[in-house]
Amino acid sequence: MTVYQGRPENCAGRSEVEIRCYDLLDSLGISYRGVDHEAAMTMEDCVVAGNAIDVPICKNLVLCNRQQTAFYLLLMPGDKPFKTKDLSAQIGSSRLSFASEAHLAELLGVTPGSASVLGLQNDKDGCVKLLIDEEVLASPQFGCHPCKNTTSLGFLTAELTGRILPALNREWQTVSLPRYEVE
Questions:
Q1: Tally of CB atoms within 10 A around 98
Q2: pLDDT-derived band at 19, boundaries 50, 70, 90
Q3: Which of 106, 153, 130 is closest to 7 using CA atoms?
Q4: 53 vs 154: CA distance, rounded Å
Q5: Which of 53, 59, 64, 117 is deepest in the core (most CB within 10 A)?
Q6: If pLDDT is split at 50, 70 and 90, which confidence band does 1 have?
Q7: DSSP collapsed to 3 states, the chain
Q8: Which residues 6+ apart lie within 8 Å of 107 measured at CB?
Q9: Residue 130 in contact with residue 165, Cβ under 8 Å?
């Protein structure tokens, strides 16, 4: 894997949604590094990519309520297990489930495995509420995909909260998800 600083030199063959992520970061003057890799379909794949750019890749889960009227993007550490009951009480929404492939495409412009906080730029109506685990906010570095799971990017968490989210006119709710002992 080759690590690069900023936008890849050659964007030929990259999707429009991915290029918009680079455009956003560049327009904000954010310093970032990236690495291209095979499609990362598991968090284990993301760890390998994250190690290449020395950044923990965040787990991005798109969730919805039972009625599919409320949608959430949850950013959490990749190594932390997710249990819906731990989140439901904190956000006042019972019976959370994963959003459908159609909702991923419609709301964030992504496919399964490619959900990213950078996809919020595609949610023009602000339908998706952002939830960030406190451990993600405490980490100095932040890693995610540019809406395609064949590339991973890393930048400062302070850039996410101080520049990217304000530019997208996004607020977030901090959540505290527990870590469980391995049985």
A1: 14
A2: very high
A3: 153
A4: 7
A5: 117
A6: confident
A7: CCEEECCCCCCCCCCHHHHHHHHHHHHCCCCCEEEECCCCCCHHHHHHHHHHHCCCEEEEEEEECCCCCCEEEEEEECCCCCCHHHHHHHHCCCCCEECCHHHHHHHHCCCCCCCCHHHHHHCCCCCEEEEEEHHHHHCCEEEECCCCCCEEEEEEHHHHHHHHHHHCCCCEEEECCCCCCCC
A8: 62, 71, 99, 122, 123, 127, 128
A9: yes
Which residue carries 């959900």 as its tokens?
A: 115
- Structure confidence by residue, pLDDT tens digits, 109-158: 999 999 999 999 999 999 999 999 999 999 999 999 999 999 999 999 99
The C-alpha atoms of residue 52 and residue 49 are separated, in whole angstroms, by 5
Determine the average pLDDT of the residues in 25-53.
Answer: 91
Name the more confident of 97 and 94.
97
Tokens coding 41: 């379909």
